[in-house]
Every structure is written in C-alpha cells, then in structure tokens.
C-alpha cells in the first residue's frame, strides 16, 4: 500500500471503521513508514483537540431573557397569521393570491346560487292568482260576446253585426294574447313556488 | 407541578404545566445547549441568543417534548437552529469573527514550540486556533465533528439529530477532521 492510499484511510483507521484486510495493510505500512506514522499522530490528535475545547460560562441572563421572550410571544393565532404573512411574502405569493381569488370566486357563485335566488313572496302569489282570474274572466267575456253575436245575427242584421263581430274577434284575439301572457307568468310563478317548496323539503 | 427531583431522575418532562417547571428544564439543559451553540456558531453572544431561541421554541412545542427525552430533543432544536443561522450567515456573505484569517496568521501566532499536541491544547492560544479552524469548516462538517468529538455522540444519535444517513455522518466526519488537520498542519509543522 502506498503512502497516499494509507493517508486517505487514516480517519477511518482512527475511528476503527476499516475492514480486516485494510486494517492489516495500513498497520503494516505504518510500522515501516515514518512519514505515515507522523500523519497518524496528527490524525489521532484532531478529535482529542476538539474534545479538549473549553466553553465559556453560561450567561446568567439566559433564563430571564427566555421567560421575557416567552411572555412577549404572540398567541398561536397571531403566530399563524404571521407565518401566513411570511408565506405570502415568499416566492409562492402569486400562486397563493391566484388560488385565493379562485376560491373566493367559487364561494361567491355558490353563495349567490344558494341564497340570492329571487324569492317568491305571498304578495306575488296573490297577484298571480288575481291575474289568472282576470285572464279567465276575459276569456269568459269574449265567449259571451261571440255567443250574443251569433244569437242576434239574422239575415237582415248580418251586415250590422258584421262589424260588431269583427270588433269582438279583435277583442277576443287581444284577450287571448293577454291571457297567454298572464298564464305563462302565472305558471312560471307557480313553478318557482313549487321548486322552492321542493327545495325546502 | 412536577417536582424537580422527578425531572432530574427520569430526565423526561411528563407533567410540565407551568413556567416554574420550564425554568427547571432550562437550568438542567442550558449548559449543554449553550456549549453546542457556542462551538457551532463560534461566538458567545450569538450562542446566548441561540440558546434562548432554542428554549423559546421548546416552550412552543411542549407537547412534543413530552414524547422524547428532553436533552436530546433540545440539542436537536439547538443544532438545527445554529445550522440555519450559519446558512443565513453564509447567504448574507457575513464572516464570523474568526474568518478572514490566513494560514500565515496561524503560523505567526504560534510561538509555543511544544511538540506534544495534547499539551499544547491546554494553552488558550491553542484553544483559539482550534476554534478558528472549526469555524472555517462548512456547517455540515462542523456539526458532525462537534457532535462526535465534543459531545461524544454515536453515529446513530448524530444521524437522528441531523436527519442524515449513518454513512453520510461518517463521510462528513472524516472529511471534516481531514480539513481540520490541513488547517492546523502548519501549526504542528512550525512547532516541531
């Protein structure tokens, strides 16, 4: 074994970490090499020098200082906020802000859907019922007009009643449109009301 | 409240409930924590601050303290804290008071021609030289050398404390000691 190889192994040798063949080879070399013998002495001296290091006396104010810091330490809640603040000031701040915005948006949409749907009030239901009744009344009136026209319509009075019939038909047509609108609105209101009741259950 | 003798006997904190118990814990461990911090950081003022911070951290995590032996747990906090400080110091480009000295400074200040290193180590100057040499080691080597040679810890204890494999502990120890040897070699050559 050459000196360079032995010197590479001296730390492990001092720690007793060499296997048997390496140990024998190193010992054989050291017994016949003055340079490596000195190197071994220096290697052995290092841990002993470190272990002999002295430490200055412990400062007397460690206990009072520690207790003062502990008593001044913010509560866990503030500590959490401070950690979060530190996190936001780091390299992840853009990702954190983006995630926060997404979460807030999703929450807002969900909240709006859940709580901000137009509510159907009792007054609206009452109004819808009234509209339906009015629509039915209009239909009834129009029907009566047609029946009267038909009854009074004779051969002589045909021309005279023609204009009346046309007027009645227009009224009926207008009423029909109005009825349709009212019915659609009423049905929509009722459908929402029903949905609300189902959701409520 | 736990009684002091009980804490001393079992060296565990099973019923720490108030500041008085905690003061007992500090008294029992401040010397070992300060010693570690002093040799890792290289100066007494920073070591005092690190010791205080170690106990403040321990106070915040008392629930963990109950599950481990207190001394090893506190030393682990202290070592990791000091390593953090050293990394930050390196990042900021700061130098410890020992840094910046050349090999010539080491040789120039070694008038004692005593050939026996063990006798030399008794001198204050030798102490200073070794401390300076340690402060020139990279934190990962410095920590292992101090834990092994000064604290007398086993490879397993060091690996648990630093969260590295035992093989890594050994290689860092050998590398650290070899670097120390090279830093101190001029002193031994001059003194012979």
What's the arrangement of secondary structure elements?
The complex is a heterodimer of chains A (201) and B (192).
Chain A: H1 3-14, H2 20-32, H3 34-51, H4 62-72, H5 76-88, H6 93-115, H7 122-152, H8 158-200
Helix pairs in contact in A: 1-2, 1-3, 2-3, 7-8
Chain B: H1 4-10, H2 19-41, H3 44-60, H4 62-65, H5 70-91, H6 103-108, H7 117-120, H8 124-135, H9 139-150, H10 155-162, H11 166-191
Helix pairs in contact in B: 2-3, 2-5, 3-5, 9-11, 10-11
The fraction of residues in strands of chain A falls at: under 5%
Oligomeric composition of the shown chains: heterodimer
Give the count of helical stretches of chain A: 8
Number of helices of chain B: 11
Residue share in helices of chain A?
A: over 70%
Overall shape of chain B:
globular
* SSE topology string of chain A: HHHHHHHH
> What separation lies between the terminal Cα atoms of chain B?
60 Å
CATH class of the largest domain in chain B: Mainly Alpha
Give the strand content of chain B. under 5%
**C-alpha geometry of chain A:** rod-shaped
In N-to-C order, the SSE pattern of chain B is: HHHHHHHHHHH
What is the count of distinct domains of chain A? 3
Rounded to an integer, what's the Rg of chain A over CA atoms? 50 Å
Main interface pair? A-B, 31 and 44 residues
Number of individual domains of chain B: 2
CATH topology of the largest domain in chain B: Arc Repressor Mutant, subunit A
């Amino acid at each position: 074994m050459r000196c360079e190889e032995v010197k590479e192994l001296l730390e492990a040798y001092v720690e007793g970490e060499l296997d048997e063949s390496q140990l024998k080879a190193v010992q054989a070399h050291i017994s016949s090499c003055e340079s490596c013998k000195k190197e071994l002495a220096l290697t052995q001296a290092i841990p002993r020098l470190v272990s002999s290091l002295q430490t200055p006396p412990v400062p007397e104010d460690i206990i009072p200082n520690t207790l003062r810091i502990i008593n001044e330490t913010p509560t866990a809640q503030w500590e959490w906020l401070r950690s979060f603040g530190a996190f936001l000031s780091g390299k992840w701040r853009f990702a954190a802000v983006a995630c926060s915005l997404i979460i807030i948006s999703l929450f807002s949409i969900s909240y709006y859907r859940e709580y901000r749907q137009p509510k159907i009030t009792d007054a609206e239901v009452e109004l819808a019922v009234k509209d339906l009744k009015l629509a039915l009344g209009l239909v009834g009136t129009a029907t009566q007009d047609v029946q009267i026209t038909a009854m009074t319509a004779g051969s002589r009075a045909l021309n005279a009643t023609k204009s009346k019939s046309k007027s009645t038909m227009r009224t009926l047509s207008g009423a029909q449109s109005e009825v349709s609108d009212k019915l659609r609105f009423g049905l929509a209101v009722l459908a929402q009301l029903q949905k609300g009741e189902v959701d409520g259950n | 409240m736990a009684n002091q003798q009980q804490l001393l006997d079992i060296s565990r904190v099973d019923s720490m409930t108030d500041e008085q118990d905690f003061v007992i814990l500090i008294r029992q461990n401040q010397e070992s924590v300060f010693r570690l911090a002093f040799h890792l950081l290289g100066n007494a003022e920073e070591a005092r601050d690190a010791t205080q911070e170690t106990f403040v951290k321990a106070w915040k995590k008392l629930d963990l303290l109950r599950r481990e032996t207190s001394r090893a747990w506190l030393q682990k906090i202290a070592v990791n804290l000091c390593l953090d400080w050293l990394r930050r110091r390196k990042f900021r480009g700061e130098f410890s008071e020992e840094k910046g000295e050349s090999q010539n400074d080491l040789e120039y200040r070694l008038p004692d021609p005593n050939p026996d290193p063990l006798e030399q180590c008794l001198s204050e100057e030798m102490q200073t030289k070794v401390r300076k040499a340690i402060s020139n080691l990279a934190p990962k080597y410095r920590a292992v050398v101090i834990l092994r040679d000064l604290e007398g810890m086993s490879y397993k204890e060091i690996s648990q404390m630093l969260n590295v494999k035992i093989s890594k502990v050994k290689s860092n120890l050998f590398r650290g000691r070899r670097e120390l040897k090279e830093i101190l070699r001029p002193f031994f050559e001059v003194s012979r």
